[in-house]
Write a structure and sequence with these properties.
CATH architecture of the domain at 6-256 and 461-472 in chain A: Alpha-Beta Complex
Strand content of chain A: 5-15%
Order of helices and strands of chain A: HHEHEHEHEHEEHEHEHHHHEHHEEH
Number of strands of chain B: 2
Oligomer: heterodimer
Structural class of chain B: mainly alpha
Helix content of chain B: 25-40%
Distance between the termini of chain A: 15 Å
Number of helices of chain A: 15
Strand order of the largest sheet of chain A: 1-3-2-4-6-5-10-11-9-7-8
Helix content of chain A: 25-40%
CATH topology of the domain at 6-256 and 461-472 in chain A: Amidase signature (AS) enzymes
Structural class of chain A: alpha/beta
CATH topology of the domain at 5-40 in chain B: Histone, subunit A
Radius of gyration of chain A: 21 Å
Largest sheet of chain A: 11 strands, mixed
Largest interface: A-B, 72 and 49 residues
Order of helices and strands of chain B: HHHEE
CATH architecture of the domain at 5-40 in chain B: Orthogonal Bundle
CATH class of the domain at 5-40 in chain B: Mainly Alpha
């Protein structure tokens, strides 16, 4: 029962073939069975989940109107605020933080009558590509427990892949939904900047952060996006516009779709099995009536350095709020107020978070601002112009999501730059504020999933989801053996 | 690209972080490699290019100047490591 998708659960509950309590119980049993191996959760809300499932069943029995995702069990990344439920960002700094309010996405999913199973693990403050920087635990890749699930939304991806929730939400600043979704064989989407409210998402890099779904299939991805998209006055970067249903827009028809394949994403450093699977997917698109050709995004190699300057600068500013005064951890020993701040931050943050704060503070400090921060923002403009030009000719762009399939624990932790390279195919999408969906397009010789990325124009979610929906029908998915 | 231990400690002070000498030395190496990587951006001529702060063009988001319900004081204080009389407490700043 835990393998059902959200749309299947929705339909069965609507037809009274399944109750919310039954499906919630099935997931709690599944968590009981596999969580020791996978370790995707930071917090499991056993009792609360059963209570909300019972309440939903009562509503249905009484003939009351229920939300669009009634009874669907969900888990949220632990940087999405949930009222009175621990929201730790997988950091010692927030080990005891219970937000007094819900993030907009948490509220929307509550209003849709989903059942919150718990909060899932992540890299500390979403900084990392393997979930190894979590203060609490190391989440494993369900396809091979000796490999990382990717990051920073590694808990979100592993949780879905291991069937420990029907779907999850993650956040994506440089690839943090798409890279783990790829390494764990899920469908994940980073929506256009400004379409999903960031209110209640603990900020990492505000001009790049975006919340999105990780799901078992493309239809679920569209269905969930339908529930979380929309204008929110609580987020000053929220775009005020109307959206038609993305689920209803799925036709699977890609006849005439013009696909660009940027050569810069398929060169050196991209492993042979990944390249092969992406090319095979492009051929499948062609067989379905779409066309593709190689094209160029010449500035792609500058996206990663620009990204690290912009995201670290914004992080150093955003994380200034963690000072041991208003919430979270406070050091026990300090000399005065300034020392309280410094001592709390030094004990509360892990090594990678400190490294990013240091890089960002350096890039923003007097004498270096123009050379690093402003320069990176100018390069950002040029990268966006590159994309604009590409989208004059192509409807969507297709690339790999990651250079390789899942890597081992500790393999990239000694050299920060090597870990940053894991995001080489994903960061430019955040720089451009563009939407991109990833889905499994094959498996390597060890059975590890390979992810394909489909990039769209701003607000082009319908086109990328539809292309993914068409391709998904040509792929035979393999479940992890747990 | 050269970053000294002293520079690291100066930036650490700005960022309200503390490091031991050994940590500062290791961090200097990491920062040299990461900032050195960022120097790649200098290969591009950005003369006259307008910097982008946000990908989606938007201007100040104003709301109507009306009072709306806010949060309860006790709820906002529920996570404070130290509080007294409806406020946060910190070490004495003024003698």
């Amino acid at each position: 029962m835990h393998t059902l998708t959200a749309h299947e659960i929705r339909d069965r509950i609507k037809n009274k073939e399944l109750s919310s309590v039954e499906i919630t119980k099935a997931y709690l049993d599944r968590i009981e069975k596999v969580e020791d191996k996978v370790e995707s959760y930071v917090t499991v809300l056993q009792e609360e989940a059963m209570q909300s499932a019972e309440a939903i069943d009562k509503k249905i029995a009484a003939g009351e109107e229920v939300g669009a995702l009634a009874g669907v069990p969900v888990a949220l990344k632990d940087n999405l605020c949930t009222k009175d439920v621990l929201t730790t960002c997988s950091s010692k700094m927030l080990y005891n933080f219970r937000p007094p309010y819900d993030s907009t996405v948490a509220k929307k999913l509550k209003d849709a009558d989903t059942v919150l199973l718990g909060k899932v693990n992540m890299d500390e403050f979403a900084m990392g590509s393997s979930t190894e920087t979590s203060y609490f635990k190391k989440t494993k890749n369900p396809y091979d427990l000796s490999k990382v699930p990717g990051g920073s939304s590694g808990g979100s991806a592993a949780c879905v892949a291991a069937d420990e929730a029907t779907f999850t939400l993650g956040s994506d600043t440089g690839g943090s939904i798409r890279q783990p979704a790829s390494l764990c064989g899920c469908v994940g989407m980073k929506p256009t900047y400004g379409t999903v409210s960031r209110f209640g998402l603990v900020a990492f890099a505000s001009s790049l952060d975006q919340i999105g779904p990780l799901a078992k299939d493309v239809q679920d991805c569209a269905l969930i996006y339908d529930q979380i998209v929309g204008y929110d006055p609580m987020d000053s970067t929220s775009v005020n516009r109307e959206y038609a249903s993305f689920e209803k827009a799925l036709t699977g028809d890609v006849k005439g779709l013009k696909i660009g394949m940027p050569a810069e994403y398929m060169g050196e450093g991209i492993s042979a099995p990944v390249q092969k699977a992406v090319l095979a997917a492009l051929e499948s698109f062609k067989a379905m009536g779409a066309s593709y050709e190689e094209m160029h995004l010449p500035l792609n190699e500058y996206a990663l350095p620009a990204y690290y300057m912009i995201s670290s600068a914004e992080a150093s500013s955003n994380l200034a709020r963690f000072d041991g005064v208003k919430y979270g951890f406070r050091a026990e020993k300090f000399e005065d107020l300034v020392d309280l701040y410094a001592q709390t931050r030094s004990e509360g943050f892990g090594a990678e978070v400190k490294r990013r704060i240091m890089i960002g503070t350096y890039a923003l400090s007097s004498g270096y601002y123009d050379a690093y921060y402003k320069k990176a923002q100018q390069v950002r403009t040029m990268i966006m112009q590159d994309f604009d030009k590409a989208f004059e000719k192509y409807d969507v762009l297709v690339t790999p999501t990651t250079p390789t399939t899942a890597f081992g624990f500790g393999e990239k932790t000694d050299d920060p730059l090597q870990m940053y390279m894991a995001d080489i195919c994903t960061v430019s999408v955040n720089i451009g504020g563009l939407p991109a969906v990833v889905l499994p397009c094959g498996y390597d010789e060890n059975g590890l999933p390979i992810g394909l990325q489909i990039i769209g124009k701003p607000f082009g979610e319908a086109a990328i989801l539809n292309a993914a929906y068409a391709l998904e029908k040509t792929i035979t998915k393999i479940k992890p053996a747990l | 690209m050269n970053i000294s231990k002293e520079e690291v400690l100066h930036v650490a002070k700005l960022a309200r972080l503390k490091f031991t000498d050994a940590e500062a030395e290791a961090l200097a190496k990491d920062m040299e490699s990461i900032i050195g990587f960022a120097n790649k951006l200098n290969e591009l001529d950005t003369e006259g290019v307008v910097p982008t702060a946000h990908a989606i063009p938007m201007h100040n988001a104003f709301r109507e100047d009306v009072v709306t319900p806010s949060y309860d004081r006790e709820a906002m204080l529920q996570n404070a490591p130290s509080k007294e009389d409806g406020g946060y407490t910190v070490p004495k700043v003024v003698e």
